[in-house]
């Protein structure tokens, strides 16, 4: 774990990951908080709650590239302070908004969601050397898994013992606190050798958004769809056998193994191609549908868990390597949008497969989605090996989205 310790020793890295973890935990739970509010406080249906959450997710997906472009042009603090005000207004007023207004306000809040994940990834790229970057993104993915494990569980627990309105205020306060913390920390988004001159120029979109970048974004979309589908398939499988109460245990095992996989992968001396990791993740997900007991399901998902954080980290690493410094914010926003779209579409697609067949079909659909995204990503990454320029600091590295071809 020497490499991981070296990454944490980078000045500013530990507080950045810590503040990011706080904000991402709250952002991970914001959909659950709104769901609990609509279900309990408004006494409305799951469909009504789903519409609010979908509006929030759609806003996040659309707002990511726009906020990223603003960061490239105006700087980090300006954008963070611009997004904090709408978050304060939205979460404070959630308990008094009529349902129809709540839907529109959720979309607006998503559109101006504090860009914690994308700015953290930009800062990691700027603060680390090419040799440290893979381990740094592995730690960032581990933080994401921890936020996924903690955030929704805490919100559900609090909603059972406190008012859903108070829970919504708490989630909003954590989002604002995390965004304000990053604004105060103000991490660099460009390395010292990228701050001036040609590296700071903004290239035309067609110069960097080529086949290889599209390949990486496609794989980011695919892994998000897979993970969203796996969550739903777990619930459907355990509900069929009358063991739904064990779903939290299965999800926790999945999350813990992902954390372990991320830490191990970050310490390895060589990276693996993104398409290979995603393809393996898809392959090991399909047979999880054979499990018909929570214990066997835990065992069946260990392989998928071990591959989850490494796959997520290689996607983030590939985006950073393929993006010139002048458009890093926009690229990070596109990455976040691709992931948001994948999470939004994964559950309906897998849910349709489950409704048409059996819960095992959910794991099959999720795994095949990952395999298809890996195949498309592999083909696209070979289509134009020199299509996208990589940042100067990574010019001697192997692109993790390729099969081992030398970077341009």
From TrEMBL:
One family name in Pfam for this protein: MFS_1
Database matches in SUPFAM superfamilies: MFS general substrate transporter
GO MF annotation: an example: transmembrane transporter activity
Highest taxon listed in the record's lineage: Bacteria
InterPro entries in the record: MFS (IPR011701), MFS_trans_sf (IPR036259)
Protein name from the UniProt record: MFS transporter
Organism: Nonomuraea phyllanthi
Phylogenetic placement of the source organism: Bacteria, Bacillati, Actinomycetota, Actinomycetes, Streptosporangiales
């Amino acid at each position: 774990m020497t490499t991981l310790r070296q990454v944490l020793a980078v000045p500013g890295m530990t507080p950045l990951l810590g503040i990011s973890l706080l904000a991402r935990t709250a952002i991970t739970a914001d959909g659950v908080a709104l769901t609990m509010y609509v279900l309990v406080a408004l006494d409305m249906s799951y469909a009504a709650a789903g519409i609010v959450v979908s509006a929030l997710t759609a806003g996040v997906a659309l707002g990511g590239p726009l906020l990223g472009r603003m960061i490239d042009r105006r700087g980090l603090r300006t954008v963070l302070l611009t997004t904090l005000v709408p978050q304060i207004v939205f979460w404070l007023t959630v308990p008094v908004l009529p349902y129809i207004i709540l839907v529109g306000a959720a979309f607006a809040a998503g559109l101006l969601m504090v860009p914690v994940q994308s700015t953290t990834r930009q800062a990691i790229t700027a603060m680390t050397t090419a040799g440290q970057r893979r381990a740094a993104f592995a730690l960032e993915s581990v933080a994401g898994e921890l936020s996924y494990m903690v955030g929704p569980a805490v919100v559900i627990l609090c909603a059972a013992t406190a008012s859903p309105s108070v829970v919504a205020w708490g989630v909003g306060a954590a989002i604002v606190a995390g965004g304000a913390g990053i604004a105060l920390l103000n991490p660099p988004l460009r390395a010292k050798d990228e701050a001036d001159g040609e590296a700071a120029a903004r290239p035309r979109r067609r110069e960097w958004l080529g086949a290889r970048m599209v390949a990486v974004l496609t794989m980011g979309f695919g892994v998000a769809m897979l993970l969203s589908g796996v969550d739903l398939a777990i619930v459907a499988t355990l509900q069929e056998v009358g063991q739904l109460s064990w779903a939290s245990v299965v999800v926790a095992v999945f999350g813990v193994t992902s954390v372990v996989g991320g830490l191990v992968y970050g310490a390895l001396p060589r990276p693996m191609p993104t398409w290979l990791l995603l393809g393996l993740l898809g392959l090991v997900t399909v047979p999880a549908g054979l499990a018909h007991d929570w214990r066997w399901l835990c065992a069946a998902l260990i392989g998928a868990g071990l591959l989850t954080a490494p796959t997520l980290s290689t996607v983030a690493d590939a985006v950073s390597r393929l993006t010139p410094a002048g458009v890093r914010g926009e690229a990070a926003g596109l990455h976040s949008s691709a992931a948001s779209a994948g999470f939004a579409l994964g559950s309906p697609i897998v849910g349709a497969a489950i409704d048409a067949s059996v819960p095992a079909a959910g794991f099959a659909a999720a795994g095949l989605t990952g395999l298809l995204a890996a195949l498309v990503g592999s083909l696209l990454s070979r289509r134009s090996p020199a299509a996208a320029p990589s940042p100067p600091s990574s010019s001697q590295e192997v692109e993790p989205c390729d099969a081992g071809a030398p970077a341009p």
